[in-house]
Amino acid sequence: MTVTSILIPHSGAGGRLADQLPMLCTHLAAAVPYEILAIDAAGATQAAPELLALAETLPALRIFQLQAKASLAAALSVGIEASQGDRLALLEAGRRYRPDELQHLFRSLSRADLVYGRTRRRGWSKAWLRVARIPRWLLLGLQVRDPDCRFWAARKEALAGLNLPRGMYRYLPNLVAARGFRVAETVCEPSSTQDALDDGWPNPGDLLAAWWLVRRTKPVEFREITIEDRSDGHDRRRANILELPSQLSRRKSA
Question: HSE on the CB side for 87, CA within 13 Å?
Answer without folding.
Answer: 24
